[in-house]
Specification:
Order of helices and strands: EEHHEEEHEHEHEHEHHEHEH
Number of strands: 11
Largest sheet: 9 strands, parallel
CATH superfamily: Ureohydrolase domain
Number of domains: 1
Distance between the termini: 23 Å
Strand order of the largest sheet: 1-5-2-6-11-10-7-8-9
CATH architecture: 3-Layer(aba) Sandwich
Number of helices: 10
Helix content: 25-40%
Structural class: alpha/beta
Mean pLDDT: 95
Strand content: 15-25%
CATH topology: Arginase, Chain A
Length: 313
């Protein structure tokens, strides 16, 4: 039953991070939101998304699989090995120690299986990205970011250099990535007056919501993943739930109107899940305290299920 037992992701087996050699993917939670600039609450995201995912328990227990009425495919979640490694130890008053912990745990998983990380605020993506690159032994990693915001702030007078608005800047400035390897989908809201000039100068692949409206979500996502994979060893995918229209997914810290529909968001994860270059995925910024309906957590779990279904089944 979905509401009974330990709420691991998809009711998968619990394992230590160094015991996933025989697995396809391993889930890690990061209950940390000490780097937000607006509403806190993403620390509760991993638990809420895991609990929501238990609805799909019947998928693994159905002999012969079930038909996905969205895609028309018959899928059997018993055919791939997913485990849940619990939560990464975090230190609410020590951002650096928390980041190092995330990197170490993701790296340990990445040596053996695909890391699937559930946050947590979007700052956590930076140490998770670093851990994936180091653990998997990749020199250069592409980055596909589905988000309302670019997270390219190099330094804020209020929040400094390490907060959820700087994660992409930190990734692009790392040894494993550059802005030419970064592709962003669903961007909207406000940026600096020089942002388009910045994107052109750095080579940032930018697909704002206006592009999604003009070109269609499938075309945009395919262009983004092909560009991110072109000159890299693997691609890291990050999905910030605020990429989705807040009327659909209100449980997040920095909502922006005019976002992706649920259908578009699912299409994003299905397309990315089918691409062989993707080696790691995360889903960030679910803040369930801002959504008493639980719909945000339910959609977040569905997005990860859609990705895993396409990647492994």
């Amino acid at each position: 039953m979905s509401y009974a037992g330990v709420p691991s992701f998809l009711k998968s087996k619990l394992r230590d991070v160094d015991d996933v050699d025989d697995c396809d993917a391993a889930v890690l939670g990061v209950p940390y939101d000490g780097a937000v600039s607006n509403r806190p609450g993403a620390r509760y995201g991993p638990r809420a998304v895991r609990e929501a995912s238990c609805w799909w328990t019947y998928l693994a227990g159905s002999k012969g699989g079930l038909t996905n009425m969205r895609t028309g495919r018959t899928v059997d979640f018993g055919e791939f090995d997913l485990v849940d490694c619990g939560d990464v130890p975090v230190f609410p008053m020590d951002e650096t120690r928390t980041a190092d912990s995330i990197t170490a745990h993701v790296a340990t998983v990445a040596e053996r299986a695909m890391p699937v990380t559930i946050g947590g605020d979007h700052y956590c993506t930076w140490p998770a990205f670093r851990g994936f690159a180091e653990g998997a032994g990749h020199d250069r990693v592409g980055f596909v970011q589905i988000d309302a915001h670019t997270d390219t702030v190099s330094e804020s007078p209020m929040f400094g250099t390490d907060f959820h608005g700087s994660s992409t800047q930190l990734i692009a400035d790392s040894d494993h990535c550059d802005y030419v390897d970064v592709n962003q989908i669903g961007i909207r809201g406000y940026e600096s007056p020089e942002f388009f000039e910045f994107a052109e100068e750095t080579g940032l692949g930018l697909f704002p919501m206006s592009d999604v409206a003009d070109r269609g979500i499938e075309t945009v996502v395919e262009a983004a993943i092909e560009d991110a994979a072109a000159e890299t060893d693997a691609v890291y995918v990050t999905f910030d739930i605020d990429a989705v229209e807040p009327g659909i997914a209100p449980g997040t810290g920095t909502p922006e109107p005019g976002g992706l529909s649920a259908d578009q968001a699912l299409s994003v994860m299905e397309i990315l899940g089918r691409h062989d270059a993707v080696g790691a995925v995360d889903l960030m910024e679910v803040a369930p305290t801002h959504d008493p309906t639980g719909n945000t957590s339910q959609l977040a779990a569905n997005l990860l299920v859609a990705f895993l279904e396409e990647q492994f089944l």
